[in-house]
TrEMBL record:
<dbReference type="InterPro" id="IPR033985">
    <property type="entry name" value="SusD-like_N"/>
</dbReference>
<dbReference type="Pfam" id="PF14322">
    <property type="entry name" value="SusD-like_3"/>
</dbReference>
<dbReference type="GO" id="GO:0009279">
    <property type="term" value="C:cell outer membrane"/>
</dbReference>
<protein>
    <submittedName>
        <fullName>Starch-binding associating with outer membrane</fullName>
    </submittedName>
</protein>
<dbReference type="InterPro" id="IPR011990">
    <property type="entry name" value="TPR-like_helical_dom_sf"/>
</dbReference>
<dbReference type="InterPro" id="IPR012944">
    <property type="entry name" value="SusD_RagB_dom"/>
</dbReference>
<dbReference type="Pfam" id="PF07980">
    <property type="entry name" value="SusD_RagB"/>
</dbReference>
<feature type="domain" description="RagB/SusD">
    <location>
        <begin position="317"/>
        <end position="593"/>
    </location>
</feature>
<keyword id="KW-0472">Membrane</keyword>
<feature type="domain" description="SusD-like N-terminal">
    <location>
        <begin position="115"/>
        <end position="221"/>
    </location>
</feature>
<keyword id="KW-0732">Signal</keyword>
<keyword id="KW-0998">Cell outer membrane</keyword>
<comment type="similarity">
    <text>Belongs to the SusD family.</text>
</comment>
Amino acid sequence: MKRHFITAALALLVLGSCNNKFLEKYPEDKLSDATFWTTEQDLKLYCNDIYPDYIVGFGYGFGDATVSPYGYTQAAVVYGDVITDNAAPSSYSLVAANEYIGYLTGASGSGGWNFDNIRTLNLFLENFRRAAIPTATQNIYGGEILFFKAWDYFKKVRLFGDVPWLTKTLNIDSPELYGPRTPRKEVMDSVMACIDTAIAWLPSKTEADYQTDRISKETALFLKMRIGLYEGTYRKYHKDLNLDGTSFLQACKDACEQLMGDGYSLYSTGKPKEDYFNLFAQYTYKGNPEIILSKEYDATLELGVAFSRYFAQNLRHRFGVTRNLMDAYLCTDGKPISSSSVFLGRDSIQEELQFRDPRLSQTVANFGTYDLATGVMGADNAPRPNIPGLSGNACPTGYRLAKWFLNDPEDWNRVTNGMQAAPIFRYAEVLLDYAEVSYELGQATQAVIDGTINKLRDRVGMPHLDISSIAADPVLDGNYAKYCGYTPAPLLREIRRERRVEMAFENTRWDDLMRWKAGRFLEIPVEGMKFVQSQFPTVKVNSDIYLSTDGFILPYYKTLPGGRTFDETKQYLFPIPIEDLVLNKALTQNPGWKSN
């Protein structure tokens, strides 16, 4: 993303502070370090310039910038799942297939190994106390910056493990530029200290002068919750780290409990067959009781994104939902498809979607019709699966994503000024995290499940999870045993299932697989829907599409005949760019990746 004017100019001033000629060339009536850090407006403008780097939503303009090193586009909140077992893009993901090599050719600072934003954040932290305003006001903006610093480093640790922890701005001759990585334990302790200070300094959303479009205490609590659950479970299941994650799990639970007492609730209008779908097709989330943080666009300022247009046309990644995700949804009797008496089978997509968790038909498009005159399309009224062999942009599995679809041709026609809002943090995740962390701490009682998982099920009219009577799922248990080397207890299995279903295509699945040490789930064969020739009379088998012996579409039959692979010796972390290893001899490459 482009560097913004205010932060870039100040950074250049600091870098050039020892160069009188540079300063002489900088106009005195423009921004300068000597005069900038004086008012609240200065601090607010600086923070405003940073927000777009972190609160990305669906992106900006055409929304087609690539997020490195993952390889998906800017609307990561939607498209992040294309590198997981939830989705299959027509051009298979190099990351998911263990073919990522960008670090071998990328320049220094590529592939996520970039500390430009950390420098920008540290510059603020070195100077914000200079403003002639009350300390409490300084703290509000300092809290925002600490929130972003914690978020930034949390992402870096998820990518690389050990990373340099930087507490000040550096110059070209600073020794820290050529130092080793800081151990993960020390970095994550520092991340938690940052977010705790942010929580202490930031205003609550309930305070009279709180501005609804800014980071709040509750937003920081949500991030603390997410950090705690990730790090705590990562340490538990990655025993080779030899790190205790209990304190992080407890931090997650404490943050959940605070958020659960802050007045949030699940969005519901009492329509179990519509509410989940409608939650993700909004122009604004102001007043929505479920949304803790969102990205909204402004038509009057022509600040929008072409998300709804290209999502409707299925252009971005041209992906489809996998049969593996389809099979995860329970039936309306609360049982998995392997043991439910109401499951009709997979002989057609119409049968497959009947008597299932209502979130399935609100996530995956049914075989419906499309009215070109009115543009009518939705979760239960979508065009037929546009599989390969038909004209237009093909959905490689036949399972087209309906979640996130905004049925408004007017917004599609705005192109880069599209106004669909993007939820970033929502309360449903708080309930899911609380259920999981309670289990991991040995505290998952029926009361906990009733206050979390069963509230989510109530919204869509699904039977409650009764911890004394959990249906067996030999298929899912078998996958855990085969691909992960362990089988979770039935209650944990169902908590994880609920998370996958509720959070599908909200960019949480990759992190879940990594922290559970379940990366080899990517090796489960990628299949699509059962092909019914009478529904697609012009599509040619073994030419347009290829089928399994059971008649399911195989999107990678030609392009990835061996299937996706996951190398557990290396793929839980990403590699550092080779050029950075050359520039800094103190850096070492992550295990399993080439060092030169």
